[in-house]
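Worked problem 6 (solution included).
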Amino acid sequence: MLLVRVSLVVPALFPALLAASPLDSLRFGDEASEKSHALSASLSEVRPGGLGEASRLLLPGGDPAWQGGTLKFHLKVDPAQQNYFTLRLWGSDESHNHMLLFIDGKQIGYRHLGDYEALDLGSDGPAFPGRFSYRTGPLPLALTKGKESIDCEIRAYGPLSAYANQFDDYQKPMRDPSRGLYRAYTHTESCFIPPADEKQGSAPASLQTRTTPGPEVMDAVKARVDGEIERLLRDPARPANQMQALFLAKAYHTPWCKAAGKPETVTKVLASLDALYRGYVANPKLAEEEPSTWNPDWFGLGPSGQAIQLLEKELKPHFDESIDDGTGKQVKRREAFRAMLLACRDWHREHRRQYTNQSMINDLYGIYLANRGIAVLDPTAALPEAAALRYLHESVGLAPWLGSEQDGKPQKPLGDDYLQLTAKGLTRELGFVGNYGEVLDWVAQIYDATRTSPGQPGDPALKNQLIKIARARAPFRYPLQDRDGFRAMVQETAVGWRDVHYPGDVTYTQRPSWDGNPLETAATTGDPQLLGGVQQMLEDNQLYATLVETMKEKGFRTTFGLLAVPDQLEKVGAPATAPRRLPMSADQPDFVFSDEEDGVVAIKSGEEILYASLYWRARHGVNFLGRVHYMTPEIDRIATVAEEIQFTPSGMDYKRPDWTNFAFGNGGPRYPKDFVSAHSGEILPIAKIPEGVSFKPGQENIHAGRGDFYQLRYGPYLIAMNMSMDKSFDFKAPDQAGLRNLVTGKDVAAGATAKIGPRTTVVLRSK
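Solution. The predicted structure is:
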């Protein structure tokens, strides 16, 4: 049985062709408009803004300090239809402050990672320089049904630190003004069409290429790495922590740096392993989580296993020497190191993690590299290489992920056939991720770890998977000026499940990260398409600027990530060897990428770019919401909109709790003030859960909110996606002329019908 939910009235024509006027609009900073909407403001002021228009800012100074100014006003709505609220912002503004919309005192959206998102999450840089940007979200029907107008309030808040443990660390004070607010609108079409007389700005006719910084940055990279090495080797007998020991073990094989081939490097690593073992004897839980690593329970003592493997030849003469275990007992290093690595490996086999990047780290360090160290010390105690590789293959989607083990038996919490990556190479966490969770750095490390020795080939299946993943990411880089106004490609994050960083980082083949660098995947694989992205980055002179930005982070983790950069830069080759460029580049042909397992689409049509997540943050039940990021040369739109979904019902429902902060977990840190969610009590149907998968309503689950067939109408686009593995669905094109199927490049007759088969997407656009 399939349940069909039509959550909006489908017009005969695409919304963009209707060009419907907004129901109402309030022009902030305009005295007459503000008066007619009964606007009252506190901690707010009007300032000149983009293209000479007035904007109203919300200021700090509230009590508590994390709350800023407020605006109260009323707007007209349609008493029967789905209403949307759109906010107009200036694309050159940046602020880390947040803004939330309230209606009748109830909060619209969640503060962190909700399907209904906050009104404005701020901007880490100019997100659409020189032009306006529009943020759209649906209003709950319960708040507009039968009404002609609604009482609205916009409140400003300071930034969030999402992974903080304490409230005062999580919710930061508001110290500077919000982004400028230009206009607010209500409307019933999902794609907001600005009035024809509204100023928009325009894309620059051409963009300049960076001239600075340049190759001198590599000298700074080397100096930083060597400075860390000098500090660590100042007293070779003084122990380092295990991440520093691994850094030195890798540096030992890096010819240009000051640790290369030096006996004192080996002495330092050995002293560090001895100290780590004594720490393990005093506290055996170090095998589970060792605090010198980031996210300790993902790593355990695996970094030490890799250090032993990398320096096997140099350390071997010392394995049968005796050391003090910290209690006065003498034990041979071979037995000591073996014991702690066995404890690490076996605990992490029983405590695997589901989210893709976390699974990769746990399986790489906690299991595989711990086992590599065991194989050096005592081959009889090590898992055979094929058995250890299984965990890595599961974590990168080459084999079904079977979950944690009990008594050596996989528990299969997601069934027998759940893969961590889609067939096209995107991670599944639960849906598409743009920034956080992009895993190229970790997969490159996974492949690198399978080499028998530095410089030798690793597991070929892992290399091919790394290439596939990197190629699948290529459509999710789009052209945008960097913060200094130069030509660049940036990472798409607005439609990502676990993303709040917007706009995305300057990114070509691989995003910059603490643990990797933009050259890593291309240099590791030598794949021509990936090298093309790197060469595009070098032609735009964005590599050195990215490294400068990376080096603003002063911690050791960043220094470790820089170690491989000089050698990898030498490997990427001359520009003539890699002519391919990223598909969303302005000079590339029209393009459609779809991934039916993640429910995401990337479209380039002329000068337009559209990203859409049809399966959008539906953690607990089917929510009938899609997410779009639509860019034309003049306008940027980010919207959460209603869509049509067909799915197989389970007979279970999920009732939204009264959470106003996180939309998952237990709702996140609680605020000391009373906030009421406008979404509390909404009933979401739960899709069918596969047999054998343990589930209770309220649990986050990959299947609970997943539909079979989606239709999303936005502006001139109609996207129909079959996410099922074994069903076909009837599809009917709108009854209008001038339609083109962007996937096939062919015209489509008005009202044409078709069957859409499993894992297939159709994208129609009106001409």
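Discussion: DSSP finds 20 helices and 33 strands in the chain.
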